[in-house]
């Protein structure tokens, strides 16, 4: 299978001398209807990729789409490592990935990274043994076991005194849990691109030789229940469901021969920024400020127009700041630094509805726009809210443990505006 690597928002030429051939483009076109809007944007003998990263797979092609970060090294290995680190921050990859020494550089294809991560989770769970369940079984055996089924035994073995028809409970790994897991592994061994990844999956499959082969369906995996004895397996099956919904054709794309695991980069950026702020607020801010993601939800009118800010910062019941993450590039030469009017209007609406005086639009840093505070606008409304423009280093966010530069300065301004009693209490706790 042909394997290609592109960057988000990159243009891909189509034709005999292009990046992909016309038959390969037709395969992507068949998949397009099942993808989120904006992933593939078609032009004349070309297509432009949208702000999504991950994996697209057709019969002819395996395409990985990596982030385009115009700040620092942009090699495929570094960008792959960055994307994996960002995904790991959201919990979509196993916790081992977050602290892995080689995380900053990933040489394998993203599809293999996802598959190997899943296999790693399975191997860890298998250290405590495969899931075994008792089932009721009736069998004609040569020694009594469980309960003798006397009437049936007399009919079955009337002329055979060497066997006994018994009903008994048997503990077996051949159960719906392992059947579903084996089915997912069989799919992954066919999808893996590198021989080493296929070998990893095959080695795990050998542990399930006694398990009946069956077809994997997402709804079957979702229906499995986990008691306290097998609770440690629940994250493994959650990941299996995630992979099934993204990679298995019959689940997401009907009869189309293709699959996808894609991440909306703006949503991913917003999520890891919010999670990092939540973590820092809980560990170093002494509870003075709380961080909420996608909440509180309010309506702009009595009957609708729901508003859901990316990140809100609260001091008690008061909303003291609202942040929105934008996976776009700032242009410092422009009069508004590249901030769109629509984004400014949206933030002004937030300020009014949430009675909040401090707002921020947060962008990725670039070569032309270094990390930190870029500029601020005082919005010309009665409340005169301040809209701050901030650029942050994506690597610092993905690999670091502190508040990114720029956002840190905003937090300091918020803390400076807290009542003196709150600040004094924080100083006593050593958190300011």
From TrEMBL:
PANTHER family: PROTEIN MCRC (PTHR38733), TYPE IV METHYL-DIRECTED RESTRICTION ENZYME ECOKMCRBC (PTHR38733:SF1)
Bias type Basic and acidic residues, positions: 1-11
Any Pfam family the entry gives: McrBC
Top-level division of the source organism's lineage: Bacteria
Segments passing through the bilayer: none
InterPro entries: McrC
Region entry Disordered, spans: 1-23
UniProt-recorded name of the protein: Restriction endonuclease
């Amino acid at each position: 299978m042909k394997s290609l690597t592109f960057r988000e928002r990159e243009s891909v030429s189509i034709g005999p001398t292009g990046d992909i051939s016309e038959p390969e483009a037709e395969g992507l076109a068949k998949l397009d209807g099942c993808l989120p809007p904006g992933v593939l944007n078609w032009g004349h003998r070309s297509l432009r990729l949208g702000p999504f990263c991950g994996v697209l797979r057709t019969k002819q092609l395996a395409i990985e789409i990596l982030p385009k970060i115009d700040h620092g090294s942009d090699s495929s290995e570094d960008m792959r490592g960055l994307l994996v680190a960002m995904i790991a921050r959201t919990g979509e990859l196993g916790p081992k990935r977050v602290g892995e020494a080689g995380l900053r550089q990933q040489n394998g294809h993203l599809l293999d990274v996802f598959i190997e991560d899943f296999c790693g989770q399975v191997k860890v769970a298998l250290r405590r043994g495969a899931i075994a369940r008792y089932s009721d079984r009736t069998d004609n055996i040569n020694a009594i076991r469980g309960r003798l089924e006397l009437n049936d035994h007399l009919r079955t073995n009337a002329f055979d005194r060497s066997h006994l028809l018994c009903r008994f409970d048997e503990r077996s790994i051949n159960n719906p849990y392992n059947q579903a897991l084996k089915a997912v592994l069989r799919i992954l061994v066919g999808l893996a691109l590198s021989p080493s990844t296929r070998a990893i999956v095959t080695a795990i499959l050998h542990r399930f030789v006694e398990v009946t082969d069956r077809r994997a369906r997402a709804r079957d995996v979702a229906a499995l229940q986990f008691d306290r004895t097998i609770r440690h397996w629940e994250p493994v099956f959650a990941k299996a469901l995630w992979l099934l919904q993204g990679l298995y054709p019959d689940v997401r794309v009907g009869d189309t021969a293709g699959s996808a695991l894609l991440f909306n980069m703006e949503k991913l950026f917003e999520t890891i920024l919010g999670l990092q702020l939540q973590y820092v607020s809980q560990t170093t801010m002494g509870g003075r400020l709380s961080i909420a993601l996608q909440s509180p939800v309010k309506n702009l009118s009595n009957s609708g127009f729901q508003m859901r800010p990316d990140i809100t910062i609260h001091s008690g019941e008061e909303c003291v700041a609202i942040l929105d993450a934008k996976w776009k590039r700032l242009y410092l030469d422009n009069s508004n630094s590249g901030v769109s009017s629509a984004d400014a209007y949206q933030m002004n609406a937030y300020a009014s509805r949430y009675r909040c005086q401090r707002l921020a639009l947060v962008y990725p840093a670039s070569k032309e726009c270094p990390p930190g505070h870029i500029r601020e606008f005082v919005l010309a409304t009665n409340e005169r809210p301040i809209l701050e423009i901030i650029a942050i280093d994506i690597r610092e966010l993905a690999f670091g443990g502190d508040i990114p530069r720029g956002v840190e300065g905003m937090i300091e301004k918020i803390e400076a505006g807290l009542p003196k009693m709150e600040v004094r209490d924080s100083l006593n706790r050593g958190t300011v």
